[in-house]
């Protein structure tokens, strides 16, 4: 079940700061899990050093992984990544669009510069990877693409981040529309929609969003927001991504799996009975 033997997996944002930490980034967890399932991972990441941490972890387990420094907002950089993967493996079976980041602000407080950077990093990156990879998958007659969105693209989740919310919502529709266009070509496109996860990125959010409170208070608040009373982790997201990229999901396209401990099923205001 859920094997990816011999499949070539192109993934963005697989870096990790620390090779010993048990708190995993989503891209790193996906790369490791897909390699454990037999996939040959080829990753592009902003920092080469942090991508090497993930590569070393995969190789230590006997898996296959190559990494490159890549800026997913640059078409030239993405093309270089895709070309290098093709040169090495001659095909791309799976594409995982993982890079994303939230910046605080409502339309009045967010600068135009931050707005543009949110669109570039979260949305244009998905377009660029698909732009360069989908023709390859079409020529192969097969492929699976998964993009990582966020429940912030479905609901207001308690903090102003309009650039993030809008771009993550756009990813879901981009994937749905493209899935229909590519359905007859043998290429499936689906989205994983994480809720509140505990990753290194979450820790970094404290500095951007919390004025006075510390990290512990912020994490406690996030746990309390979830009906399951705890954040999820990178592996919860990776497991959903693996299913969508596997043959077990061969009749699923244009869909999303929400991995959120129940938040989006909840109004957020329980009755006090
Ligand atoms: N964590 C959550 O609670 C949560 C919830 C919902 C959705 N998500 C989504 O899940 C995805 C992954 O989140 P995460 O928590 O795993 O984040 P993360 O730990 O910060 O990982 C992001 C990765 O993307 C890389 N990156 C950043 N900018 C890049 C660029 N321009 N080009 C190439 N690579 C770049 C980073 O590289 P460096 O190594 O250089 O830093 C890092 O390896 C994002 O799309 C995020 O929006 C996260």
Automatic annotation (TrEMBL):
Annotated Pfam families: adh_short_C2 (PF13561)
Family: Belongs to the short-chain dehydrogenases/reductases (SDR) family.
MF terms (GO), sorted A to Z: oxidoreductase activity, acting on the CH-OH group of donors, NAD or NADP as acceptor
Taxonomic classification: Eukaryota, Fungi, Dikarya, Ascomycota, Pezizomycotina
GO biological process: abscisic acid biosynthetic process
Coiled coil segments of this chain: none
Keywords: NADP
Protein known as: Probable dehydrogenases with different specificities (Related to short-chain alcohol dehydrogenases)
């Amino acid at each position: 079940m859920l094997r990816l033997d011999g499949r070539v997996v192109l993934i963005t944002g697989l870096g990790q700061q620390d090779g010993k930490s048990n708190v995993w980034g989503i891209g790193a967890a996906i790369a490791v899990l897909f390699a454990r399932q037999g996939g040959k991972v080829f990753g592009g990441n902003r920092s080469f050093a942090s991508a090497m941490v993930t590569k070393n972890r995969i190789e230590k387990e006997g898996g296959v992984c190559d990494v490159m420094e890549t800026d997913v907002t640059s078409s030239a950089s993405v093309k270089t990544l895709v070309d290098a993967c093709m040169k090495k493996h001659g095909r791309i079976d799976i594409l995982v669009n993982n890079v994303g980041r939230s910046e605080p602000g409502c339309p009045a407080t967010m600068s135009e510069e931050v707005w543009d950077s949110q669109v570039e990093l979260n949305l244009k990156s998905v377009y660029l990877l698909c732009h360069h990879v989908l023709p390859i998958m079409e020529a192969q007659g097969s492929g699976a693409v998964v993009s990582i969105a966020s429940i912030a693209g479905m609901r207001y989740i308690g903090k102003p981040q309009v650039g993030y919310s809008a771009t993550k919502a756009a990813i879901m529709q981009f994937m749905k529309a493209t899935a229909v266009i590519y359905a007859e070509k043998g290429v499936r496109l689906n989205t994983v929609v994480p809720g509140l996860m505990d990753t290194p990125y979450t820790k970094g959010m404290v500095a951007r969003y919390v004025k006075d409170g510390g990290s512990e208070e912020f994490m406690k608040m996030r746990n309390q927001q979830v009906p399951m009373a705890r954040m999820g982790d990178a592996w919860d997201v990776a497991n959903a991504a693996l299913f969508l990229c596997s043959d077990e999901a061969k009749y699923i396209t244009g869909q999303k799996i929400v991995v959120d401990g129940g938040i989006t099923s909840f109004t957020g205001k329980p009755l006090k009975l």
